[in-house]
Design goal:
This protein has about 525 residues and is an alpha+beta fold. The protein has 15 helices and 15 strands. Helix content is about 35%, strand content about 15%. The protein is globular and about 85 Å long. Pfam families: CRISPR_Cse1 (PF09481).
Length: about 525
């Protein structure tokens, strides 16, 4: 190797941002991230989607370094030791070190050496950086000046680009036979952009990596750094993934960075390997799945599953049921939980993880707009729970969780109906906005309460008692909002207005709300029969 050439070795150069258990935040190298994983709390990055992409990159390395884990016994041995198997990881990284140089002249990391357009054009770095509506970059501090990235920053955004790059027209790479009139026409978003991403998290990076590291024995499932160097065109048209490692590192784009001294100042991004998400559930572990009748009709296939994407307007706990494995999943079920959640459930069933073990569930994803050509929103949420909720014999506790989510939804609907009825009573014809705002306010009030309630559920919890506690907390929160709505209603609402042939007044609205809350939260009223309706004591 000629040491005078530009180089940024990702094995030993700091580029992965981490938070240590001490609270200190810094960039570390790939090797250090593994060596210090037991002393690192989590990854941090410019955007949450970088955390998702970088975590999966680390998982790909770990899978290949340990050649598995082959089975649950090998995994159990890794879990029991203080550190990750550093010798195996170091040997593996050294073996492929040339493929981890960001500026290698022949095999630059996650790039194509010599990539070019017919006119020799380069793009500004805003093509590489994720953006949000109206073109406001996440790098807001850089707006107004030409964007320059350090090699560490550029490396993170290259990984992110393969995972989450929007669709749309790309630079037309010479040698790609899909290019027409110098343009690369849309092939879809980066692979992870299709997903409602789910990561199970522990108290350290070591725990997080292992909790997401399922047994894997497919020796043909290789990452790009173990495959022949790619060219500017598609590897093989419609090539199916060889497994989860392939998807963790799927080369959705062909990329080349332009370096100027100590900084990266330009980029070329062309189309890479196209990958559609239909029926990828056997390979992709970090998302839930939904059955799609529309895709079944379109493709003429009996069963088609699509990734269950996150809805930014919904807190993760409101969709919790989709992530929790059932004891059995019927063939052709409407929903499939993430494989990673099924894996942690298996660890709990075998008592490798104690039922009291605290888990985090982090959901990360992207909402695209304008034919998937722009990022309109990034979804990032997390909740804490005990491993017992994934145990297959915790039927009653799991049922209470699902019922409690439904109770929260019914409560929010009741508050929304109250706001709508008060608007009608005051003479308004526009009630939908009042309903939606009141329901959203209710969810906002219930959100921290539900998270704390869920985190407090353990193997010794009495399901009926815990359900009663939740109903009581939700009732108090709902009546606090209702009392404010009633107090702020104009005098006209007390007089009321006719609607659909009957008079609606604020008194009617309150009475209907009280009945709806009793129906939504019956256990609260069993616990608090002595409380007057509408009080918050």
């Amino acid at each position: 190797m000629n040491d005078s050439r530009p180089s940024f070795d990702l094995v030993d150069s700091p580029w992965i941002p981490v938070r240590h258990t001490s609270g200190r935040v810094e960039d570390v190298s790939m090797a250090s991230a593994f060596e210090q994983a037991h002393e690192i709390t989590d990854l941090v990055a410019e955007v949450p989607t970088q955390v998702f992409a970088l975590t999966r990159l680390l998982l790909a390395v770990l899978h290949r370094a340990v050649r598995g884990p082959r089975d649950i016994d090998q995994w159990k041995g890794m879990w029991a030791t203080e550190t990750l198997p550093i010798d195996d990881i170091s040997t593996y990284l050294d073996r492929h070190r040339d493929r981890w140089d960001l500026f290698h002249p022949e095999t630059p990391f996650f790039q194509i050496a010599g990539l070019r357009t017919a006119k020799g054009e380069w793009s500004d770095l805003d093509r590489l950086l994720a953006d949000v509506p109206n073109g406001h970059l996440f790098f807001t501090s850089r707006i107004g000046a030409p964007i320059r990235l350090s090699p560490a920053e550029a490396a993170r955004w290259v990984v992110h680009c393969h995972a989450f790059d929007p669709s749309g027209i790309k630079s037309g790479a010479v040698g790609d036979d899909r290019v027409k009139s110098g343009k690369g026409y849309p092939i879809g978003v980066g692979w992870s952009g299709n997903l409602g991403g789910v990561l199970v998290t522990g108290s350290t990076l070591k725990e997080t990596l292992l909790l997401n590291l399922r047994p894997h024995t497919n020796e043909d499932d290789l990452p790009p750094w173990e495959r022949p160097v790619l060219g500017p065109g598609e590897d093989l048209p419609n090539r199916p993934p060889s497994g989860l490692i392939d998807l963790f590192t799927w080369q959705s784009r062909r990329i080349l960075l332009r370096r100027d001294g100590d900084h990266v100042t330009g980029v070329l991004i062309a189309n890479g390997d196209r990958r559609t998400p239909q029926n990828m559930h056997p390979h992709e572990p970090n998302t839930a799945w939904r059955r799609s009748p529309a895709q079944e009709k379109k493709l003429g296939i009996g069963t088609v599953y699509m990734p269950l994407e996150h809805r930014p307007e919904r807190d993760v706990w409101r969709g919790l049921q989709a992530f929790l494995p059932e004891a059995t999943t019927a063939a052709g079920a409407d929903r499939l939980p993430p494989q990673v959640m099924e894996w942690v459930a298996e660890l709990t069933r075998r008592k490798i993880l104690p039922r009291t073990f605290p888990l985090g569930l982090r959901t990360i994803g992207v909402v695209y707009g304008s034919q998937q050509s722009v990022i309109t929103e990034v979804v990032d949420d997390a909740i804490s729970m005990r491993a017992v909720l994934l145990a297959q014999d915790a039927h009653r506790l799991l049922a209470v969780v699902k019922e409690s989510v439904s109770a929260a939804e019914a409560t929010a609907a009741a508050v929304g109906r109250l706001a709508s009825d008060l608007a009608v009573a005051a003479g308004s014809r526009e009630t939908d906005g009042h309903r939606a705002r009141a329901a959203e306010s209710t969810y906002s009030a219930l959100d921290p309460l539900f998270r704390d309630w869920l985190a407090g559920l353990g193997p010794d919890s009495d399901p009926d008692d815990r359900a009663g506690i939740w109903h009581q907390e939700a009732r108090i929160a709902a009546w606090e909002i209702a009392d404010r709505l009633l107090a702020s209603a104009p005098m006209a609402a007390w007089v009321g207005r006719p609607s659909n042939g009957k008079l609606i007044t604020s008194t009617h609205a309150r009475s209907w709300f009280a009945a709806a809350v009793r129906k939504a939260l019956p256990r609260a009223h069993v616990r608090s029969e002595h409380n007057a309706e509408g009080t918050t004591s």
